[in-house]
C-alpha cells in the first residue's frame, strides 16, 4: 500500500525536506503539501510536482503528517487539524521547542507523535536531525521519521528530555560555525588579505576540517595536535584562544542556548 505523506506549512524547512524526499525516491504523487498563501502552494506544485491541498484534507488523507509551521503558529494549526486527524495517523513535529505533550493534549487519544529538531543544512542534505518519541509512538513510528529525515542528512534518536541540549548543540550549531568564519575572515582582513580571499581560505579550511572530523575517526585533539608543532605558529594562536577564554565562552554559550530552549518549551507545555 502506498503511504501518503503530507507536509503542513511548507516553508524553508518543509520545502528542504520535501525536495530531499523526492531526491531520495519518494514519488511526488504520494506527497501532499499545504501552504497559507495560494501563490506559495502553486510554486510548490510547479517546482516539485506535489499536490497542494487544504490542511483538513491533508489531515484526512495522509498516513503521516509533518508539521513545519513556526512554533507560534502551531496552536492555530492544531485547532484546525484536530477534528480531522484519525488517531492512527503519525504526526511528526518539526517545530523547535514544542514538547510532544502539546500535540497529545490537542489531538485524539493515543495519537502517535514524534518530535524532530533538524537544522538548516537540511537545505544541502547535510542536516543533523534529532528524533524523540512521544508517549504513543512506537519503534516503527521512529523508524518512519528516521527514513523521512534521513533524506536530508543524519538522524539520531534521543530521549525527549535531551531535546533542549540538542537544540543548543546541533539546532543552533551551524550559527556558531558561521560566526567563527565571520570572525576569522575579519582576522584575515586585519592581516592584510582581501575579504574574498580571506573568506575562501577560511571556508575551504572549515570544509576540510569538517570532512576530516567526520571521516578520519580521529579525536579532535589528535587532529589539532597534528597541526600544532613545537614552538610553531598554531600553538601561539591556541595560547591566545585559551587566554581569551574561548573554550569557557563556548560552554557558557551552549548552556545559555539550552536554557532558552527550556524556557520556550515551558511556554508551550
Ligand atoms: N529555519 C531553521 O533554522 C529551523 C531549524 C530547525 C527547525 N526549524 C523549525 O522548522 C519550522 C519551520 O521553520 P521555517 O524556517 O521553515 O519557517 P517558514 O519558512 O516560515 O515556514 C513555515 C510555513 O508555514 C506556513 N504556515 C503558517 N501557518 C500555516 C497554516 N495554518 N497552514 C498552512 N501553512 C501555514 C507559513 O506561511 P507564510 O509563508 O504565509 O508565513 C510558512 O510558509 C519551525 O517550527 C522551526 O522551529 C527551523
UniProtKB/TrEMBL annotation:
Q: Which Gene3D superfamilies match?
A: NAD(P)-binding Rossmann-like Domain (3.40.50.720), ProC C-terminal domain-like (1.10.3730.10)
Location, primary (coarse class): cytoplasm
Name the pathway. Answer: Amino-acid biosynthesis; L-proline biosynthesis; L-proline from L-glutamate 5-semialdehyde: step 1/1
- Taxonomically, the superkingdom here is Bacteria
**Ranges that cross the membrane:** none
**Compartment list:** Cytoplasm
* Gene Ontology biological-process entries: L-proline biosynthetic process
- Keyword set for this entry? Amino-acid biosynthesis, Cytoplasm, NADP, Oxidoreductase, Proline biosynthesis
Reaction(s) catalysed (UniProt annotation): L-proline + NAD(+) = (S)-1-pyrroline-5-carboxylate + NADH + 2 H(+); L-proline + NADP(+) = (S)-1-pyrroline-5-carboxylate + NADPH + 2 H(+)
Per its UniProt entry, what is the enzyme's top EC class, as one word?
oxidoreductase
Tell me its EC number(s), please.
1.5.1.2
Sorted alphabetically, the Gene Ontology cellular component annotations on this record are: cytoplasm
Name the Gene Ontology molecular function terms of this record.
pyrroline-5-carboxylate reductase activity
Where does the Pyrroline-5-carboxylate reductase dimerisation domain start and stop, copy by copy? 160-264
Binding positions for NADPH per the UniProt entry: 55
Q: Which InterPro entries match?
A: 6-PGluconate_DH-like_C_sf, NAD(P)-bd_dom_sf, P5C_Rdtase_cat_N, P5CR-like_CS, P5CR_dimer, Pyrroline-COOH_reductase
The answer to whether UniProt assigns keyword Oxidoreductase to this entry is yes
Biological role stated in the UniProt entry = Catalyzes the reduction of 1-pyrroline-5-carboxylate (PCA) to L-proline.
PANTHER family on file: PYRROLINE-5-CARBOXYLATE REDUCTASE, PYRROLINE-5-CARBOXYLATE REDUCTASE 3
Q: What is this protein called?
A: Pyrroline-5-carboxylate reductase
Q: Which organism is it from?
A: Streptomyces fructofermentans
Amino acid at each position: 500500500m502506498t503511504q501518503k505523506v503530507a507536509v503542513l506549512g511548507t516553508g524553508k524547512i518543509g520545502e528542504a525536506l520535501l525536495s530531499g524526499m523526492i531526491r531520495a525516491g519518494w514519488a511526488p504523487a504520494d506527497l501532499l503539501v499545504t501552504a497559507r498563501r495560494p501563490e506559495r502552494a502553486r510554486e510548490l506544485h510547479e517546482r516539485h510536482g506535489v499536490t497542494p491541498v487544504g490542511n483538513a484534507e491533508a489531515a484526512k488523507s495522509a498516513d503521516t503528517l509533518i508539521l513545519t509551521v513556526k512554533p507560534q503558529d502551531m496552536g492555530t494549526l492544531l485547532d484546525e487539524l484536530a477534528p480531522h486527524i484519525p488517531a492512527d495517523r503519525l504526526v511528526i513535529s518539526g517545530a523547535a521547542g514544542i514538547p510532544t505533550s502539546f500535540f497529545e493534549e490537542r489531538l485524539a487519544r493515543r495519537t502517535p507523535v514524534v518530535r524532530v529538531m533538524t537544522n538548516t543544512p537540511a537545505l544541502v542534505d547535510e542536516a543533523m536531525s534529532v528524533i524523540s518519541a512521544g508517549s504513543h509512538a512506537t519503534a516503527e513510528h521512529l523508524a518512519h521519521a528516521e527514513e523521512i529525515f534521513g533524506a536530508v542528512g543524519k538522524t539520531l534518536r534521543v530521549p525527549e528530555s535531551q531535546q533542549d541540549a540538542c537544540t543548543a548543540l546541533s539546532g543552533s550549531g551551524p550559527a556558531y560555525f558561521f560566526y567563527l568564519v565571520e570572525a576569522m575572515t575579519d582576522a584575515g582582513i586585519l592581516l592584510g588579505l582581501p575579504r574574498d580571499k580571506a573568506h575562501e581560505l577560511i571556508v575551504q579550511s572549515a570544509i576540510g576540517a569538517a570532512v576530516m572530523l567526520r571521516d578520519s575517526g580521529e579525536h579532535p585533539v589528535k587532529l589539532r595536535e597534528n597541526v600544532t608543532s613545537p614552538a610553531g605558529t598554531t600553538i601561539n594562536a591556541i595560547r591566545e584562544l585559551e587566554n581569551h577564554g574561548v573554550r569557557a565562552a563556548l560552554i557558557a554559550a551552549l548552556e545559555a542556548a539550552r536554557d532558552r530552549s527550556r524556557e520556550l518549551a515551558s511556554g508551550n507545555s
